[in-house]
């Protein structure tokens, strides 16, 4: 008998009626002959409420360590409530079920509270329960450190919980139910002609997740790719059997018969551009700047350097998340006496737009099409970055939607 992992996000379990619908979806998979493990998030809005409570409790007193471990105790409780309610619902439907907390499986994580990473998932307890026909309802988002403390996995961490459990129990697939019915060529709210993809490669999904597509958490895709776990993204707002063949399969590139040159257009408005003027043009300068930013855990994305008008100087532009912009400026200003640049400026009115596709590896002209489509619409490109399967440009935020629609049409994504 094959094992299947199902994961339901916060909107899918937002109230008792939606939990009952989840119960019906789980029951359908049990009836189909699967051994089922279900990973659940907290009810929609609950984690934000719990975080607000921890914020309101204030900081630890002088001489005491930060209360990050106790923060995790509080915010992990949302998933515990949902797991218990779904297990009760399944039992009311006549299906054997029990809830599992992260420490009971156990999902072993490091001690980086609030952003812990999974280290191991010994599967023996879960497999033994599933072999008896019992549905395992697992609280997502939470693990346990090796010294027995609860550790949460960061926002969206239930996706990662589900993939880790699927890998541990050798499930045939990890089905992630959400409020959309699959992965689209771009955001349907911006482009009504966006098309749902039947399949997308791990690498493409990883790029789309990291570039702003919020369908799956980036770490869950990384883990799925590393463990070769097929993931299906589908809607929880249907009844069993209503939408056969629905969803998008995230899988190995080799399992996709026809590789598209470009599979999707992603965008992110969470960008800030920092410009350093009059930077001394000699070895070691970049190391000082980006070393200081790395030490402060500021993630730098796009980088471009150009010669300035003054001899032996350069101007440098790079992007960071908007949340880190003020801190990044402080850090580079602190390094100004050591480096000797003239000035620094920050622009938060920018957006990153990207085209992604594994077919770029073997086709030329992708950049030409992108730049031509943007030029035709009068969209000026400020910064460019590329990888093997992605081209990203930084543009004025006011042109984001225009650029997304233009690129979607330029690559024929509305014809899929």
Descriptive account of the structure:
The structure is a single chain. This protein is α/β, with parallel strands linked by helices and 416 residues long. It is 33% helix and 26% strand. It contains 13 helices and 18 strands. It has helices spanning 16-31, 46-56, 68-75, 77-92, 124-131, 157-168, 202-210, 218-227, 285-295, 325-334, 336-339, 366-376, 400-410; strands at 3-8, 35-40, 97-100, 108-109, 118-120, 135-139, 142-144, 150-152, 173-178, 199-201, 231-235, 248-251, 264-280, 300-307, 313-320, 343-356, 383-387, 390-396. The strands form four sheets. An eight-stranded mixed sheet has the order 3-6-2-1-9-11-12-10, sandwiched between helices. Strands 14-15-13-16-18-17 form a six-stranded antiparallel sheet, sandwiched between helices. A hairpin with an 8-residue loop joins strand 4 and strand 5. Helix 1 crosses helix 4 (77-92), helix 7 (202-210) packs antiparallel against helix 8 and helix 12 (366-376) packs across helix 13. The chain is globular, with a radius of gyration of 24 Å. The model has no long low-confidence stretch (mean pLDDT 91).
């Amino acid at each position: 008998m094959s094992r299947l992992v199902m994961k339901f996000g916060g909107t899918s379990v937002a109230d008792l009626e939606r939990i009952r619908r989840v119960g019906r979806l789980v029951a359908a998979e049990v009836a189909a002959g699967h051994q089922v493990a279900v990973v659940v998030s907290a009810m929609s809005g609950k984690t934000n409420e719990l975080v607000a409570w921890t914020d309101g409790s204030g900081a630890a007193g002088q001489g005491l360590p930060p209360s990050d471990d106790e923060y995790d105790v509080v915010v992990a409780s949302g998933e515990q409530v949902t797991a218990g309610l779904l297990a009760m619902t399944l039992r009311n439907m006549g299906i054997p079920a029990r809830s599992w907390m992260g420490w009971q499986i156990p999902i072993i994580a490091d001690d980086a509270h609030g952003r812990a990473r999974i280290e191991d998932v010994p599967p023996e307890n879960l497999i033994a329960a599933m072999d008896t026909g019992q549905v395992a309802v697992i609280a997502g988002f939470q693990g346990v450190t090796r010294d027995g403390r609860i550790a949460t996995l960061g926002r969206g961490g239930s996706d990662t919980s589900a993939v880790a459990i699927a890998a541990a129990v050798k499930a045939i697939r990890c089905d992630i139910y959400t409020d959309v019915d699959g992965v689209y060529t771009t955001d349907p709210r911006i482009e009504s002609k966006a098309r749902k993809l039947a399949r997308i490669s791990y690498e493409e999904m990883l790029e789309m997740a990291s570039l702003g597509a919020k369908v799956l958490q980036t770490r869950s895709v990384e883990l799925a790719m590393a463990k070769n776990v097929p993931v299906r993204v589908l809607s929880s707002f249907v009844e069993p059997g209503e939408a056969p063949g629905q969803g998008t399969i995230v899988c190995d590139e080799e399992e996709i018969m026809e590789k598209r040159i470009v599979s999707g257009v992603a965008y992110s408005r969470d960008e800030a551009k920092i410009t350093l003027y009059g930077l001394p043009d000699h070895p070691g300068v970049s190391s000082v700047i980006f070393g200081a930013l790395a030490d402060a855990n500021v993630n730098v994305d796009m980088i471009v350097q150009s010669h300035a008008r003054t001899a032996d100087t350069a101007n440098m532009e790079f992007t960071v998340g908007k949340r880190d912009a003020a801190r990044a400026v402080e850090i580079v200003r602190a390094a100004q006496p050591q480096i000797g640049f003239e000035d620094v400026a920050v622009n938060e009115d920018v957006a990153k737009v990207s085209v992604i596709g594994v077919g770029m590896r073997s086709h030329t002209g992708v950049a030409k099409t992108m730049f031509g489509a943007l030029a035709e619409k009068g969209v000026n490109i400020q910064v460019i970055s590329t990888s093997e399967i992605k081209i990203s440009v930084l543009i004025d935020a006011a042109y984001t939607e225009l650029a997304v629609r233009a690129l979607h049409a330029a690559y024929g994504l509305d014809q899929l």
